[in-house]
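Exam revision sheet. Question 4 asks you to relate a sequence to its structure. Input first:
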Amino acid sequence: MGCRGHSQPNITGDIAIDAFKKGESAYYLTGPWNVPAIKEAGVKYAIDALPSAGGQTAKPFLGVNAFFISSKSKNKIAATKFLVAYLGSNAVQEELYKVGGRPPALTSAYEAVSKTDADVKSFGSIGLDGVPMPAIPEMASVWADWGAAELQLTKGDGDPATVWTTAATNVAAKIKG
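Answer key, structure tokens:
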């Protein structure tokens, strides 16, 4: 969160969006799930890709929401049909987008929505450079070390190459366990 010209180390997601909606923050790093609240607050905003680091295109993490069938389901055939035929339909994917603000994962539903929603189109374009976010518990250490490195650099504290190398080494060590 960019608040009054500096970053703050102990900001929660709720505090960050609240400050952005009140005009107390010049920027907000987030995803499409927060656009409805920003629109509702009447904030004028633009959606941009993450800036380049070292001349290389930034590669944001991508994630998806999913539905699962329980291994204890008493009727797996009906549950599968519900997921594929109903939840996987254009109509339901587009409705989930309307209530949740997230672009549909179903390509045909995404294409329909992106024709009328510039925000969805922007996130889709940015996502073309993205990489799948690992679905591992150790991602918590990624965010902690990454955030600490970003904060250190925004304060002008340390050599960027050294700070990022240290953060990457710490993350790798925690993932390796």
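Marking note for examiners. Residues 1-5 have pLDDT under 50 and may be disordered.
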